[in-house]
Amino acid sequence: MDPNKNSITSLDDIIFEKRNKEYGAYFLRKNYSKYLKRAAIYGVGASLLILGGAWGFNTFIAPNLEKDDIEVVDIDLSALEEEVDEEEPPPPPPPPEEEPPPPPPEIKQVQFLPPEPKADEEVEIEEPPPTLEEVEKAVISNEDVEGEEVVDVFTPPPPPPPAVTKPAGLGKPKEEEIFTAVEQQPEFPGGTSEMYKYIGNNIKYPAAAQRANVSGRVFVKFVVEKDGSIGKIDVLKGIGFGCDEEAIRVIKSMPKWNPGRQNGKNVRVWFTMPVFYQLE
């Protein structure tokens, strides 16, 4: 033990022996008991002050207050209750008379009477229609004409029109329909993995895209013809810097696909695919 140190050492000195005593914890722990005693004294003094004030008020001030300042007034309510009982409540008002509903709107009408023949008016007698035998031996017309009976009523058809020697000016034949979904979709020889392998081996990263550090996907839509060749090509979404043109070039250079089929026949089909550009 160091003889230079004081013989009386507190617990705080032992705890903070090799620590920074300028820190606030050491100061608070060292003065905690002093502050606690001071707070206890202040609290007891305040309590005694409040109790003494209450005792003095009840002993010296309260008995000297005048109790005659408050006047109590008695009100007789019996007369009011009798007046209220004598008054009868007014009778309820009679219910309102119900108004009759309005008459329905009148509908437009027109008088119609069957015609009555007059006494002096002559009644025409209609002639009976001709019999079947009379119709077979005569030509049907809107009036009766006396003449020879017809044996054969059949009328020969008109002569055929002259033959056309010059071809008619026909328009261009309609372009065959291009399907978007068919029973059997077109397929690259070997499948999708071989298709992307072919693109990876044949595509060239444009120098402009490399200098600009451009990467991404180019979405291309093209037609697989009935013989499997690649037809029309459209770029749906590109990234520029020559990447769109390079994707079109590689797709055009593909070998023939297995064409799409619908109802057992080869048909033209739209096909959409992305072409990836990724810098290493």
From TrEMBL:
GO terms for biological process: protein transport; siderophore transport; transmembrane transport. Coiled coil: none annotated. One of its GO terms (cellular component) is plasma membrane protein complex. Residues 81-111 are annotated as: Disordered. Residues 190-280 form the TonB C-terminal domain. InterPro entries: TonB, TonB-dependent_transducer, TonB/TolA_C, TonB_C. The keyword Protein transport applies. Belongs to the TonB family. This is Energy transducer TonB.
